[in-house]
Prior knowledge:
The protein is α+β, with helices and mostly antiparallel strands. The chain has four helices and nine strands, in the order βαβαβββαβαβββ.
Amino acid sequence: MNEVLAPLAFREAVAGDVDELVVLVTSAYRGDVSRQGWTTEADLLDGNRIDPEVLRHDIARPRSKVLLAERDGLILACAHVADEEGAGYFGMFSVRPDLQGGGIGKHLLGEAERVVRDEWRLPAMRMTVIDVRDELIAFYERRGYRRTGVYKPFPHGDERFGRPKRDDLRFEVLEKTF
């Protein structure tokens, strides 16, 4: 018999969510638990994926939201959206590793796009992705994002965002216009 799941609910994170979000984001990208999902960066980076103080700042600042996807009161996924330089910025996209591939991320991305397009009336969404993450870039391309050819350096030496296992890491900007 198929179990009927409660619908996803979206809400904005508050400061009291920070500790749980650090665990969620880290589990989606770092260490052995992240290997349960397909978003792991465990072969590229060690250490932190998000700094709690940076997260608190993102929650508190104007035109910035950390969106949560919940079911039955449990946080299953999160993402950060912000108004940066006249476009939406999308980052910190994390789905519990054991739930990846089930559609939660697609719904959360859609909610983030709705906020940027409909609430903030911005013309585009941008994000930075480590450019060697071909499978992740393909995920975004299937959702209308395009590679811009604009690259940004990885913050080597800033352990708030991890310790690279290779020297050639850099970000590429992806963009979707509305």
